[in-house]
Amino acid sequence: MTTTDAVAFWDGVYAARPAAGNPQPNARLTETVTGLPAGDALDLGCGDGGDALWLAGQGWQVTAADISAVAVERLAALARAHGLGDRVTAVRHDLHTSFPPGGFDLICAHYLHTPCDLDRATVLRSAAHALRPGGRLLVVDHGSAAPWSWNQDPDTHYPSPQEVAAGIDLAPETWTVERADAPRRIATGPGGRTAEVIDHVLLIRRTA
Ligand SMILES: C[S@@+](CC[C@H](N)C(=O)[O-])C[C@H]1O[C@@H](n2cnc3c(N)ncnc32)[C@H](O)[C@@H]1O
Questions:
Q1: pLDDT tens digits along 24-41
Q2: Residue ranges around ligand 1 (CB below 6 Å)
Q3: Angle CA 135–112–156, to nearest 5
Q4: Residue 9 maps to which CATH number?
């Protein structure tokens, strides 16, 4: 699938639904970041922007990257509306072809799943290398499908945090795994329907 196809796919996803007025942050992000000193953050596949807006509100300078121009333009407008326009830089970026430049204290990749071509291990390895010493990479993946998910294939394999870490293949002298687990949470879907789902959480810290 080409970049053009991927852009069309994800622009279609976002254009098909109204802009979120007040997108919420990921609970794994808030529990990880609360108490950390603010710095420079990069949100990979920012989507509606709940994570970027929350981080900016906590004093972080956020680069929010997504392949969808619709998502990026909506987030930029939302950041301005929330008075956070100077803290959020929303950029259209295809992570399949390159990685955003710069060094970061926090990089997050939440549900960075796509039916289009994307070498996630390469993206996450680039992210680990883009961390400043002391910086953290938070990866939150689906560990199960909600009943309203488009993917109801019972044979779907959800890689464990340990498998994701093994795929990134980082030198233990420079990066350490701070968290690798599979917590449950109650997710809210269309029409306010709720269901218990599993997250796969991987938190890596660059130590040197
Ligand atoms: C399942 S959504 C998750 C969005 C958001 N992180 C969240 O937690 O709600 C995946 C996001 O990744 C973006 N994405 C998919 N492929 C991408 C690529 N090659 N480069 C950049 N972003 C991409 C999509 O546009 C979409 O916003």
A1: 999 999 999 999 999 999
A2: 6, 10, 26, 45-47, 65-68, 71, 93-96, 110-114, 116, 118
A3: 130
A4: 3.40.50.150
